[in-house]
Amino acid sequence: MRSHSLRRTADDTGLPLYVQIAQTLNDGIANGRYSVGDLLPTEAELGEAFGVSRHTVRQAIQHLRHQGLVSARKGVGTRVEASRGKSSYTHSIHSLAEILQYANETRLEVSELAIRRARGATAEALGCRPGKQWMHVVGVRYGANSERPICLSDIYIDAAYKAISGEIGRARIAICAIIEQHFGETIIEVEQQIEGAVLTEDVARRLGARAGDPALRLTRHYFVTGRRLIEMSISLHPADRFSYAMTIKRDVPA
After folding, report:
1. Using CA atoms, how far apart are residues 115 and 162, in angstroms rounded to an integer?
2. pLDDT band (50, 70, 90) for residue 251
3. Radius of gyration (Cα) for the chain, nearest Å?
4. Triad 137, 127, 160: Cα angle to 5°
5. How many whole angstroms separate alpha carbon 253 and alpha carbon 198?
6. Which tens digit of pLDDT belongs to each residue from 163-176?
7. d(Cα 50, Cα 77) in Å, to the nearest integer?
8. Per-residue model confidence as pLDDT tens digits over 58-92
9. Predicted confidence band at 146 (pLDDT cuts at 50, 70, 90)?
10. DSSP 8-class letter at 39
11. Could you tell me which of 153, 159, 125 has the C-alpha nearest to residue 137?
12. Residue 246 confidence (pLDDT)
């Protein structure tokens, strides 16, 4: 079979190979090279065509599966299921939709934005090697029609996506959604941790609150295909300005 050329743009710098391969195959599906119902070449054939390992090809196929573009069955192969990706999130679409909606209903006023190298406790929290570059964003979040601060957010974004820096705080959508739109990534999992905290003098000043007041600290890790972390946010909410509600239902056998 003919070799493939990876689709590259100015914004592709730093993107994993499997994402570039998935984008190239996505292009092939969109332009009709692979029609709905067709089988994609085998992992071995794609590996040879792109000059990558079968493991990288599997990651690319998994990426396309999360987008609803293909299905994979042992003994059958990888079949094209749709010509355009679906906006869906495997196993957690409702909870993730609610997280994304929060960004739609609020606004973030950015006070700091810089590229930094993660070290010490920060590198440990991000689960990365010391020295890895991240885009660090600090800002206060407000209600859509309110001047009362909701929280102070400390956000770390993989520096591979620094091209979106101009949209942070301007676009009324979640940062991870901006990354999805520009880079073809798919958020497949969000880990969230909620802890009690107290407001320090600096945080209290930014939020118009009192130092020592109780607060909630929400830490979220956003993962894409291959469980690769692309964003971590830490938000401090004064306790009297935020509540968190969940509905938990018992699983009922079919």
Report:
1. 8
2. low
3. 21
4. 50
5. 43
6. 999 999 988 889 99
7. 18
8. 989 988 887 789 998 888 899 999 887 654 323 33
9. confident
10. B
11. 153
12. 66
Residue with the two structure tokens 């941790």: 193
Written as six digits, the tokens of 80 are 């094209």
Residue whose C-alpha is closest to residue 150's, from 90, 236, 91, 84 = 236
Check residue 248 and give its pLDDT.
66
Phi, psi of 198 (to 5 degrees): -125, 150
Closest CA to 207 of 161, 157, 128, 142: 142
Neighbours of 37 (CB within 10 A): 8
* Tokens read off for 251: 């699983």
pTM summary value: 0.69
Nearest to 211 by CA among 223, 195, 199, 220: 199
122 vs 136: CA distance, rounded Å: 11
Provide the pLDDT for residue 247: 66
